[in-house]
Amino acid sequence: MTSRTLRANPKLDLWVRFETKGRVTVFTGKAELGQGLTTAIAMIAAEELDVALERVDVRTADTADGPNEWITAGSGSMEQSATALRQAAAEARRRLLELASRKLGVPIPDLEVADGTVRGGEAALTYWQLMEGRRFEGDVGERAEPKAAEQHRVVGRPAPRREMEELVTTGGRFVHDLERPGMVHGRIVRPPTYDAELQGVDDAGVREMSGVLEVVRDGRFLGVVALREEQAVAAGEALRAAARWTTRPLPCGEDDLVERLTANPRQSLPVIDGAARETDAPPLLPADPATTTLSARYFRPYHMHASIGPSAALAEQSGDTITVWCHSQGVALLKPSLAQVLDVEPDTIRVVHVPGAGCYGHNGADDAALDAVLLARAVPGRPVLLQWSRQDEHTWEPYGSAMLVDLRASLDAEGTIVDWSHDVYSDTHSGRPMPMGETSGLLAAWHRDPPMSRHPRRPSTGFHSGIHRNADPLYTFRRRRIVKHLVDDLPLRVSSQRGLGAFANVFAIESFMDELARAAGADPVEFRLRHLRDDRARDVIEAAVAKAGSTPDGAGRGLGFARYENCKAWAAVVADVAVGDDGVIRLLRFSIAADAGEVIDPDGLVNQLEGGALQSASWALKEQVRFDRNGIQSRDWESYPILTFPEIPEVGTVLLDRPGAPFLGAGEATQGPTPAAIANAVFAACGARLRHIPFTPERVRASRPA
Amino acid sequence: MAGFELTVNGESRRVDVDPATPLLTVLRNDLGLRAAKLGCGLEQCGACTVLVAGESALSCRLPISQVGRREVTTLEGLAEAGGLHALQRAFIEERAAQCGYCVPGILVSAAALLAWNPDPDDEAIRRQLADQLCRCGAHPRILAAVRRAARELRG
Ligand code: FES
Ligand code: FES
């Protein structure tokens, strides 16, 4: 079966080219986000084509060339792009061998390929001699058979990470580092709060400032363009001071959030077999009195993506065409979205992905692209490099949605779960820009005059999408009732953040499994295994426990487990923690096990799993977006602290490699299990049951038995 | 605008800029040394770390007028005549990065540590890097890379 990716991008030439002598260019419509995509893609190409890894150049998402793969999200790069590229590279090799066979007069089975040279008897031809600078015609198709796992020599082995040498010698090349002839600098001035209205701005003084080329005002979108960066920064500050706003309070502050999540109007849909249904949600019936029934409520606050680098973009208008270099995860969606806002033909816009700092979901990248375009249109012919300030980033990015999860479960006399109920309350998890009707997902589009309205929020119904991602656990229960609630009128701007609903759903489920195991007088590991019919799940849990070995003295140990979206990678995290008298949680060690199908780049995979676990630990221990009715109070790293080097645990990871099995996305697999592993470990260490993120020392002290 | 003579990576450089311009901006935009990154501009994240007179320093708010003739070393100046700095080799070896945005600052900060303490224990490394933020969770690899470089430097 041809994949969706190949159906949308069938031409072989979109994937593989031999244009420059001695080099192979392969394409992916995905973006390098720090997940190591280009390394894995190059390994697959080198493997299938039998060329040295060093010969492979990888070109990533660009709306002007290569395949259109929509978006780089949902841990889909390996499943979609790498699988398609493997087929394309195998087809390229098949065609090259056919050609070589004809030219050399040697039957295909007698040909040998080594590093791009095809040998048949005494004669040999290189791929580049065979191609003679031509490009492939026709489709990838299904004729070629990718190599069997036993033949692999490149994939599944350690390989150097691409661009590492450049990174450690010159600092790499991020969108912030781009330079073009005549380039100038831009900064924007956002309103002080979401709904503030611009009363007026006297920008005469700003226009006089040194280096200032343009002050842009369009509705309540304000920006400056200046010759030099420090001039743009200074002019931006002056413009901020010159603007007069009337603000409107947010509908609530952080203290009322839990109440708002359950009290506000909402749409409720049942979740059955992982997908939401457009029917009435079943009521929660009273529990069978013959069972032992537990219920608990879990909470996660709003979290920031909080990229280390500010959102940025370089835009240039020349004639009627606009080019934007940016770190959007979805250049193919951004292009028509920009066209819609600007009311121009999509093909007058080219969007090129250039790495930014890690984004972990939908952050300010797309918004910055529109900002840069709006500034560039004010100075035609001059490329404008726009960078957000730290405060722009912290206060305007779309956050990960706050969530509330109510669980109830009943145990029979044998300690088996017979009844399970899960209600999850949250705002949407998808605010990405889509070219849709009259609405926009781009920030500046809401601020220009006339303003566009936001995309309507609708409950997503897809398999493990949005709020109900991983709400349906892999465990076997006699009865289950799962309901998602899309809550209206919540205060903050939100969108997709690594793991979406899975972070809080798995946190809740896996904490609750621990509570239930204890109520049943069972070992939490054995209790989970008892409720699992899936062998690969059991293997992963057992591997993590084995990796963890014995618990360090004085520490508590906890487990968290999930299969991401119930169809991607399986991951288990064992956390060992110590809890001080002051309530401070010290992370001692994480032991991780994962099964992501066939492993291409083991090092890259481990990096993703461990990085995800540590980021998730940071969310769980330290993070919450602070806000009151006057607006966002988390404006910098001091008011939004994250996990630092002294707080990082030892981390060890085992991969259960499954050669020949499909690649499974793993970039978000440890996000959910980690907070549960920590909470369960804290309970084991000191008896405090943590159900409310972040796990601050005050909460630990308050939850600890006297 | 005013003229400033700087010593950067062993070379004399002259720039004409406003005296309040941060060193980071001058390095990146006037001298084409883009390894040090703008992360926060608030002296809170470490992305802009460089060496000033051998000590690790945040360059995002350091006015160029206060740098004087003190030797400034950026990541670009870390490599020695014989090739890469031990830390650079170790970061490559350990694949100590995800997005990599934090790495230039961290590498320079670690170089400052190893210059005066060639045998740091784990705690000393963590303390040195305490103000260097990494959002990707690349910390374990980074710590391993610093340990590896220290071992190598000690021979
Ligand atoms: S950019 Fe200087 S400390 Fe963040
Ligand atoms: S590797 Fe991305 S911030 Fe450190």
Which structural class do you get from the secondary structure elements of chain B?
alpha+beta
Major sheet size, sense and barrel closure of chain B: 5 strands, mixed
**CATH architecture call of the largest domain in chain A:** 2-Layer Sandwich
- The CATH homologous superfamily of the largest domain in chain B is called Beta-grasp domain
CATH class of the largest domain in chain B: Alpha Beta
Assembly type of the chains comes to heterodimer
Put simply, the count of helices of chain B is 5
Radius of gyration of chain B: 15 Å
Distance between the ends of chain B: 48 Å
Q: How many strands in all of chain B? A: 5
**Overall tally of domains of chain A:** 3
Bound ligands, named by name, code or SMILES: FE2/S2 (inorganic) cluster
Structure classification of chain A: alpha+beta
Written as H for each helix and E for each strand, in order along the chain, the element string of chain B is: EEHEEEHHHH
Number of DSSP helical runs of chain A: 18
Tell me how many strands of chain A there are.
31
- The amount of beta strand of chain A, in percent, is 15-25%
Give the fraction of residues assigned to helices of chain A.
Answer: 25-40%
Spatially, the strands of the biggest sheet of chain A line up as 9-10-7-18-15-16-17
The rounded distance between the terminal residues' Cα atoms of chain A is 61 Å
What is the domain total for the residues of chain B? Answer: 2
